[in-house]
Amino acid sequence: MRREEGTSESEADEREQHTAIAAILAAAIDSEQARDVWRLIDQAKSILLLAHERPDPDALGSALGLAHVLSPLGKECVVACADPVPANYAFLPGHESVVSRLPHQHFDLVIALDAGELGRYGALYTRYQSFFDTATILNLDHHVTSSGCGQVTIIDPASAATAELLTLLLLNREIAINLDAAKCLLAGIITDTRSFEYDATTERTLLAGSYLVGCGAIPEEIIKPYYRVKALAKARLWGIVLDRSLQSAAGGSIVWACVRRDYVREAGATADMDDGLASYLVDIDGVAFSVIFEEQDATTTKISIRTSAPHDAAAIAAAFGGGGHLRAAGAVLPMDIEAAVDRVIARIEASL
Amino acid sequence: MRREEGTSESEADEREQHTAIAAILAAAIDSEQARDVWRLIDQAKSILLLAHERPDPDALGSALGLAHVLSPLGKECVVACADPVPANYAFLPGHESVVSRLPHQHFDLVIALDAGELGRYGALYTRYQSFFDTATILNLDHHVTSSGCGQVTIIDPASAATAELLTLLLLNREIAINLDAAKCLLAGIITDTRSFEYDATTERTLLAGSYLVGCGAIPEEIIKPYYRVKALAKARLWGIVLDRSLQSAAGGSIVWACVRRDYVREAGATADMDDGLASYLVDIDGVAFSVIFEEQDATTTKISIRTSAPHDAAAIAAAFGGGGHLRAAGAVLPMDIEAAVDRVIARIEASL
Are B341 and B302 in contact (CB under 8 A)? Predict the structure, then answer.
């Protein structure tokens, strides 16, 4: 017996699958909460959608994704963000329409996305504070640390991304998620989970991803530009740093490397191109602590620390006046890079 | 209004979600096909599960995953593979039980997984050919190029991984997927799609991933050891190669680097630690062709070519007696590394 076609489904089966997934996602949110959200949106004709400052693709993807579904419903939508959209976010349809100043128009509703404090919307908030004082605000976010800032607020830490929460809210209302919206929402989910890797990824996160892929969004079109494409100068810089400065101590449980200003110059790079290097080093077999020492000038060195469990990066950073999280922390030290290496590595060795 | 708990679901809701996802996956396979598969398995008491030679986590995860669900059903299962399990596959529960020679026992059924030709099971097949000549074989695979080799064969190219097909077959039979099985099957899906990135990833692929995460499998426990953890020597080797040999031509659309034997020695590395470097280079902004030149000895150079669409890697490799796929190909050239660089780069420049 040989069945060439295997289990390939007919289009009708695929439509049925898609509809069934939508029903599960629609049921995954409290209907009363969803009603509160839609009541506000229904009442509004003109809507300002806000992404927080220094936007990530979840903030912008959530704002743009909502705009893509609300505009065809007759809502006049403006997406705003205090900072410009990074160049490598071109996978977000509509990214070119994001404004950094508010137009002179009335808004019936502000939807504040992916942050629970108005201050996190940066200059957009501080510049237009009197507008926000009287605005009706709907606040949708997933950060457990958020305090909330809306007349209606949903902070859902069970969602790996604000885009996951929005997917539930849209499907609960039985709103068709068009292709542009699906691309924006999938971008939020993929980038907030590093392609479903981080432990915030639940069965429901992947289910939402599944549904959005079924709407036509393509993961590779997000992952490649966001995680893989890099400048030639960045590859050169990493090569120089690893070849000339990679060191280890404590039997390989501490590794570090130095980003010197002349390395950056020689590579034709910019200083921010060491981004990701500390994480790359902590994933070396057997490493407990990794540190990148970045020479800022002759008397200032920035450090980025990463740890594997159970080691505490924040404690080391705090010893040098910095801070951060348990697995990722940093500090700026008032000394040259040689002195910083000596002091920080000695401190980590003492902690082991 | 502030709802701290957001949409967090009760356990009952989560169980309902899990069951509903199982039902969609169960319906996604032709029930007649599934019946043919289960008829063979039902009739067997002792089962040999085969992973193809040079196994990837989908081959081994499929074989081990099936064993994890069939053993509690009273089946005596042996998982075999011609080659040893790579050390970094420890995320596959049961990996230590895989044998590379057949035990002296009778098997009622052979389940050949993730390859459709018996020759692809390597030395296991050639050494025991007379056994296979008379065995009842169930062949489950997803490679479109497979010819099939079983009394019952399902080759399902709609599945991104053999593990996706198995998930459907198990749920169609309403078999509970236990934690060990879920870990094995999720490993197959994640590694065959590079964490849901490759274009084989469909709505159904993510749905299967969702279900397996709901069974308790954790993506990070697969992704970290498989994709991120590396030897210190590998980081050293990449640094040396990038710092000392990275070059570009044709306005940056061709980039290449050389892995010389003395680089490998200096890094304390092994030659295979350049694995992934060609892909790393093709993801540099604006690159059409990347090439890694690996010095094998004074008169032999191996090349690995990667391309971005629409450029043809296989055509370049073929010009030097090699072959491969449209985006990834290779060849072995009977010349020293300098001559190989000159010839190959000239050939690529001529093709642009």
Answer: no
Q: Name all domains of chain A by residue range, CATH numbers in brackets.
A: 11-227 (3.90.1640.10), 232-351 (3.10.310.30)
Residue with tokens 């110059």: A265
DSSP, residue by residue, A305-326: EEE-TT--HHHHHHHTT-EE-S
DSSP H or E stretch at residue A33? helix A31-43
pLDDT in tens, B18-75: 999 999 999 999 999 999 999 999 999 999 999 999 999 999 999 999 999 999 999 9
- Interface predicted TM-score (ipTM) of this complex, two decimals: 0.93
Nearest CA in chain B to A206: B210
Task: Report the gap between the CA of B298 and the closest CA in chain A (Å).
Answer: 24
Best of B40, B114, B140, B210 to substitute, by most chain A Cβ atoms within 10 angstroms, is B210
CB contacts under 8 A, A 310-329 vs B, are none
- DSSP, collapsed to helix, strand or coil, labels residue B293 as strand
Instruction: Give per-residue pLDDT as tens, A209-218.
Output: 999 999 999 9
In A142-200, DSSP assigns E strands to 152-155
Q: How far apart are CA A130 and CA A123, in angstroms?
A: 13
Q: How far apart are CA B295 and CA B293, in angstroms?
A: 6
Contacts of A74 (CB under 8 A, 6+ apart): A45
Q: Which of B294, B254, B263 is nearest to B277 (CA)?
A: B294
